[in-house]
Amino acid sequence: FNIMRGVMNLMRYPTRGFCGVVSSAGVAFENLLFWTSGAKLTPYQPQMPLNNHSPIVLKDVKGEYKVSTLKNGIKIITESRQFPSHVNMGILLNVGSRDETPESSGSLLMIKQSLLKTLKNTNETTNYCMVQMSGGDFTMDYDNEKTYFKAHCMEYDVPEIFKMMADCALEERSPMAINIAKVKAQKMHMLLGEKYKTAPLERSQHVMQGTAYGYRTLGMPLNGIESNVANLNASIINGFLQDQVTPNKMIFCANGINHHEEFAQLVESKVGHIPPMSPLNKSRPKAGYVGGESRIYYEIPSTAVMLCYESVPWTHPDMPVYSVLNILLGNATGFSMGGPGKGMHCRAIRKVFHKLDYIEGVNTINMHFTDSGLFGMQITGRRQQAREIGKVIVDELKDLKSNISDEELRRAKNILKINVLMALERQGDRPVSYTHLTLPTILLVQISVVA
Known about the structure:
Layout: H1 2-12, H2 27-37, E1 65-69, E2 75-79, E3 87-93, H3 107-113, H4 124-134, E4 137-142, E5 147-153, H5 158-170, H6 175-198, H7 204-213, H8 234-244, E6 250-255, H9 260-271, E7 302-310, H10 319-329, E8 332-333, H11 347-353, E9 359-368, E10 373-382, H12 386-399, H13 406-423, H14 430-433, H15 440-448
Parallel strand pairs: 2-6
Antiparallel strand pairs: 1-2, 3-5, 3-6, 4-5, 7-10, 8-9, 9-10
Helix pairs in contact: 1-2, 3-6, 5-9, 10-13, 13-15
């Protein structure tokens, strides 16, 4: 049908040119085309320039970063356009699950479940249609310390998409929106509960952080305390927003912006009226490392043994050292053990996975926060060898004190540098990297001097 429709179009417009690639299977069609319209297929040669076509050539342009701050304390960061592309925008909030309390635990999850449900300027249907018609995307992600709303669209749609993103991120939630989000959250917890019955080891990180810090600050679960979801309401969620989402915790960033001043005016017109942080606002409670031991028994043939200790925060001079050690130890699983340049020579593979037949997986733990950190190892294997697995972890961590060759140290440093540079290739996340306390260029220098 498609071939006949093409033939009919050629018969209708016989003067139009036609260019295609001819193969042995298309000889019959070429004969039919010539018989019906008199047109002939021209072989395509990629090395030859097309007639009457002048390609647009753009030179590489180095991105320019600009930073400004509004009167109420909101920071704005933009990166100029380096090549024709869409515009990435983001709202980074210095708010995470560590800022929740046992009473407000699950607030960020409820905000995410009601992301598009605004009422003041638009509604959920309008927001959804705006994202779809722009051809872009709008999402929300959060972790222990940060919340990030990000969107991308064409330059023409930037003002409308930005206003929609700001409404979804900062507007108070209605009781109806929270009730719908509560049902979604309860279903999510129910599905996770069923999942953990067959794959209980996937909740190891939550157990580890709860043991290290207790059920407060960095020990608060990302998805909230399951038993507290039913207690959440619009008053609690909006109170959490008012207390935690203040101008001094907001960073508006964009990528692909040629005029920083125009974007700054757009931000100021939308959020410039928000009053600055009151001196009475409480600062973030410091995370206190507690430590301890947790044992959870499951009726499965495998066991996971984790051993970690408190390391350093992001701002500590030894942070690059732990990052290099993370690459040096590496990770290993049964069907993914890295390749050239991806960790195939790490200690997890060479000294653990390839030598011990009861090991199923090895993971290095390296986490950094604003005021604390965790470093250690997790090894999964047969439950009958749980004692041996614990001894392997202790021996490997002790071995880091003295037996590191120059070759594996250089290899780990080079892989870490490549990982940093590859992360900067993601256009949508690049402006966010410049909001951290350590610039990527400075981080590369710090990695180089690790010895």
